[in-house]
Amino acid sequence: SLGAGLAVISVSRHREDSWFKSLFVRKVDPRKDAHSNLLTKNEESNLYKIQFHNVKPECLDAYNKLCEEVLPSIHADKYYPCELVGTWNTWYGEQDQAVHLWRYRGGYPALTEVMNKLRQNKEFTAYRKERGKMLLSRRNQLLLEFSFWNEPVPREGPNIYELRSYQLRPGTMIEWGNYWARAIGFRQHDREAVGGFFSQIGNLYMVHHLWAYKDLQSRENTRNGAWQQEGWHEVVYYTVPLIQHMDSRIMIPTKASPLQ
């Protein structure tokens, strides 16, 4: 009958449409682990917090002095399960900006413990109140470290530091990690690799690579040298399409920074 014929045609078209659409659907293998568990050093459970403080230009010197009086005491006090990895002022990039990187050994429980204890610390409360008068804005992110990167350790200076930040396309973090697990080997010759991190809270699918150089010319020479190594160009070729946005800061460590 006409009705049956139309039904057959409708089913046939539905199947064709489904088959056609399936050509453009990316197949995803089921996983029992979050991506972060595949990329980080699970046995160490280090959590990092990076802070970006935009300081009023006329207050930057006073801000640095205030931080130098308070932050090292928290770093040195075993009562707080955290460490100040580094603290810098941006030299090139966003101006009048301070960047602080903290490590919490023990992950989220350590972070919670520190935050609860600092609320009871009158010196820190006074520091936050005074600091607030000097800031235009602030933001932070919670990060994990890539398993294949160096863990940041104190180093002597003088050095300049470059923080390269990459906003990746959602769903590409594993792919990025696979390429950089090989690429990091090309960037160890001058001890320039300091640390590599990816965001968990804050801007998501964000990667931060931290590098150290003696000066800007050393940076130029080191980066040019990577292109002379077989395999580096391939990593760049395949990772650039994963990036939505990227940013570079050249930073100078403050007196309080363990990374000099």
TrEMBL record:
Pfam families: NIPSNAP. GO terms for cellular component: mitochondrial matrix. Signal peptide: none annotated. Its main location: mitochondrion. Residues 161-258 form the NIPSNAP domain. Keywords: Autophagy, Mitochondrion, Transit peptide. It comes from the Eukaryota. Belongs to the NipSnap family. Protein involved in mitophagy. Accumulates on the mitochondria surface in response to mitochondrial depolarization and acts as a 'eat me' signal by recruiting proteins involved in selective autophagy. This is NIPSNAP domain-containing protein. It comes from Sphaeramia orbicularis.
